[in-house]
Amino acid sequence: MVSIQSILLLVFGVSTLALPVVEQRSEEPSRTIPESDFFTALDRRTPPSPLTPGQSGAQGLIGSDICNIIAAQKSMPVAPSPLPSTSLTLSHIAIGRGVQLYNCPAASPSATPTNVGARASLFNSTCLAAANLDFLTWITHASLYYPIPSSPDPNNLANTDLSGHHYFLDSTTPFFNLDTDAHSYGTGAFKKNATSDAPKSPKGFASMLPLPQNQTASVAWLKLTEKQDQQVLKEVYRLNTVGGAAPKTCQGMPESFEVQYAAQYWLFT
Fold first, then answer.
1. Contact of 237 with 222, CB cutoff 8 Å
2. Pairing outcome for strands 221-226 and 162-170
3. Given Cys at both, which of 54, 57, 149, 249 links 38, Cβ 3.0 to 4.6 Å?
4. DSSP 8-class letter at 48
5. How many whole angstroms separate alpha carbon 113 and alpha carbon 224?
6. Are 226 and 50 in contact (CB under 8 A)?
7. pLDDT tens-digit series, residues 138-172
């Protein structure tokens, strides 16, 4: 049997799975984490048919002529406890790679950690979802084993494939900013509409990648709805989550900490 390490070495071009997934919270933005080989998976394993001539990686999968986003919407993953459907139009799919943020009350080891937000970089995977959703889910799971892609080089795939960023305006208002120097895909503030526990075990290719040993579980799948009038982005689904869940109690945890996670974000207008 081919080992997980061998598969990740072949696809990502690195040989270690070491990555701290629970750590003291830092106020530095997630994009300052060192660059990884995350995007080599798209370069080496993307199905060749939808690629734009002369382009490689996920950037080569972007464009209305080659991306059947209608087909992607029809194949959107269904949560274990189905989330409410939408009548809106799918506009973007991104892999989110970042951290879930938690607080623990001082001197209360039996307390349950409180989720106070998240912070993630979003990477365009819209057309890869249309071409091969099972493989995209595998990449989503595999990305948890690698640092959040980042590079000072504007031509690096960590920047050319960057859709934007996800963060919280306050503890109950997730925000998605998909406007960058390279494009304007829209922004939006949201509120939680529905939730579903993540599956106990992933299906398909992703079943080959269990959670790292110091991860306890995956955060829930969500449906988010708009919180502000006239925003471009109207609804967001967080699907195929990997990691990010806090320990059951605050025993041994600092007052503020973060847990690494990955997820797919399906955004509607």
1. yes
2. unpaired
3. 149
4. S
5. 22
6. no
7. 889 888 888 887 778 877 777 778 999 999 999 99
